[in-house]
Amino acid sequence: MASIRQFVRRFLERPGSIDLAPFERIVRAAGAEEDRLRKAAELPSPSMDDLAGFCAVAREAADRALGLRPYDVQLVGALVMLSGNVAEMATGEGKTLSGAVAAAGYALRGRRVHVVSVNDYLARRDAEWMGPLYEALGVSVGWIGEASTPEERRAAYDRDVTYGSVSEIGFDVLRDRLRVDAADLLLPEPDVVLVDEADSVLVDEARVPLVLAGAADAGGAVPETAALVRRLVKGYHYEIDDQARNVHLTSKGIDTVEEALGVELYHDTARLTEVNLALHAHALLTRDVDYIVRDGRVHLVNPSRGRVALLQRWPDGLQAAVEAKEALAPSETGEILDSITVQGLITRYPGRCGMTGTAVAVGDELREFYDLKVAVVPPNRPPVRADEPDRLFEFAADRDRALVDEIAEAHATGRPILVGTLDVAESERLALNLAGRGLECAVLNAKNDAEEASIIARAGERGAITVSTQMAGRGTDIRLGEGVGALGGLYVIGSGRHASSRLDDQLRGRAGRQGDPGGSVFLVSGEDDLITHYVADEYSSGVPSARLVAHAQRVAEGVNAQIHRNTWRYTRLLERQRDLVLERRDRVLRGRTAGEALAAAAPERWTGLTGALPPETGEEILHGAARQIVLFHLDRCWAEHLAYLAELREGIHLRVLGRASPIDEFHKDAVAAYRRLLAEVESRSVATFESAGITEDGLDLDGEGLKRPTATWTYLVQENPFGSEWERLTNRLATKIRRR
Ligand code: ADP
Ligand code: MG
């Protein structure tokens, strides 16, 4: 049944099937008003009941305010977004302007818009660049960045349109969830979100949790375990699954570890987890690919953007294991107070839309997880980029040589070259190889977004060689320098195919913008991870065929979508519980529910206190104290609940080994735990209310020993490995059981 429905959906409502004709009609009608508006000394304020009129005014306003006259296709893109869809528009088509017209349209309808950019640099650039247009349309605009103060943030969120990166907005949401005074809340109710580089944010980063933590202590790194696993031999002591997602000890490995540690792993789950984490860090995470070490710290590399992801870390145990592997001092860890995934963050907004160069490829996911449809907006000028077929090699070493030769040859003609590599280490290797041939190149691996943008902006100059890890979401377009068009325009060379053809397209799309000439080619070897991880061994030897490469990409994409789906099944329940808790919290924060509940639960205490307090202010003081008490326990219990669920999730596969479905089992326990949570908040609140000193000065929570965390900090957790953790545990147990 499900598969038939899927089949019908695929063919009848193919993603990208949104009909552009109605939007094109509106834009044509807008064209008819062009002359009249051009002569107008002052622009009329547009009415959103007349979309053609709005487009005409927006076009004229952009021309006057920015010196950019939106092309028809840019207005079509804006209308696609204004109707709540994702516009697929190629790199360099001018999505910033399209998005601003759409955001202004929403604002003129009385909606409040958050424009989500991929980083702080772009949020500010776009808000400032589009500022005059918004002003001309009578719409206020602001932006936030990592360095913004609370006052600046409040001011920015007060505007009709606010630009910000997904993490900055997300962290503000998390911090708002712990306010104890309604006047301190920064964010308004979520209304409309417009997501730039929508595939990158909504699909590649959908699972990334943003975390707010408090009450620090040093992480428990385990250097001995790290040293132990370093001695283990792959294939003998441990094995890695085909897709390099899981590693597990063989029986030989178990013996060796048990002997070295003098424990029975089977009976010592803490040790077992520790060994598994160390092994994961040792065997699956590679320095300079998954992370780099700089200034004595581990910095994660974002796998979809190939750049250093500041503020990101793995879940605590794994972070500590990697730090131990690299013999670094453990970084601080703390109790998680709350967290939200990018997906959870975006789906809070009742209105959603977005834009990107590559959306159709993730059309199914956008529909499934965000209820978004995709419309393909044609380019302003027909593309003439020449995409050559892949060049295929059996061995990586041959490909690497051919890559340098190809660069040298094209460079000799003066043609600018952009090389896309798959990871940071490869970029650096290539730069060395090129230097060996006397060729200089600029290497991008993202330390500074602004600096990087200026390097990219120069990548189209005659003779430029730019080496970059994945280009998705980089947000700066490459203009051709003098005379470069005659040389064939920008030449994009990929040093291997990505795990998704969408990322290949993002790279290719850097050449041939706005009808420029340009070219692209990918050099693929049979030793590339894509082939070795996603193609069965019997097919993966020799020179790979184009079909095999395409097949490997489809498998990789399927695996990623499945992981997304699995994680979502576990987090959905948690998100729902969180919504319920937050709803209660909000009522407590803004109203008198806490006081009413405590008055009902402890009427004698309430009356007693009322008598002891001054009659004019007594009631207010009591309600204020009740609010503080309930918020404290609610937040406390929620953090405990989160910790419990994390543990539950980690252990569930052990408990249900060979029995009920783990997800059902998890749900049953999680629901029961939620009920306990509510009861616990109530009983703890009543107990505090009964015993705490409440005077004319109110309640001194700290004095009662009820301290809120003094410091909080935020970070992103990358690639939640719990899913594979369970598999590792079960695999490992299966091995153990087989052996007995
Ligand atoms: P995208 O985000 O789609 O890759 P950008 O918004 O970064 O593209 O814009 C790419 C370039 O195109 C910018 O330099 C911008 O100034 C230019 N541009 C955008 N719209 C127009 C227009 N209507 N006319 C001329 N130039 C434009
Ligand atoms: Mg852009």
From TrEMBL:
Gene Ontology MF terms in the entry: ATP binding; protein-exporting ATPase activity
Annotated catalysed reactions: ATP + H2O + cellular proteinSide 1 = ADP + phosphate + cellular proteinSide 2
Binding site for ATP: Q74, G92, E93, G94, K95, T96, D477
SecA family profile domain ranges (all copies): 1-555
EC number: 7.4.2.8
Main location: membrane
InterPro entries: Helicase_ATP-bd (IPR014001), Helicase_C-like (IPR001650), P-loop_NTPase (IPR027417), SecA (IPR000185), SecA_Actinobact-type (IPR026389), SecA_CS (IPR020937), SecA_DEAD (IPR011115), SecA_motor_DEAD (IPR014018)
Localization, UniProt: Cell membrane; Cytoplasm; Membrane
Record-annotated Helicase C-terminal domain positions: 402-556
Keyword ATP-binding carried by entry: yes
GO cellular component term of the entry, any: cytosol
Membrane topology: Peripheral membrane protein
Keywords, in A-Z order: ATP-binding, Cell membrane, Cytoplasm, Membrane, Nucleotide-binding, Protein transport, Translocase, Translocation, Transport
Biological process (GO), any one: protein transport by the Sec complex
Keyword hit for Kinase: no
Span of domain Helicase ATP-binding: 76-236
HAMAP family referenced in this protein's UniProt entry, alphabetically: SecA
Function: Part of the Sec protein translocase complex. Interacts with the SecYEG preprotein conducting channel. Has a central role in coupling the hydrolysis of ATP to the transfer of proteins into and across the cell membrane, serving as an ATP-driven molecular motor driving the stepwise translocation of polypeptide chains across the membrane.
Family: Belongs to the SecA family.
Self-association state and partner proteins as the record states: Monomer and homodimer. Part of the essential Sec protein translocation apparatus which comprises SecA, SecYEG and auxiliary proteins SecDF. Other proteins may also be involved.
Protein name according to UniProt: Protein translocase subunit SecA
Originating species: Planomonospora venezuelensis
Gene symbol of the encoding locus: secA
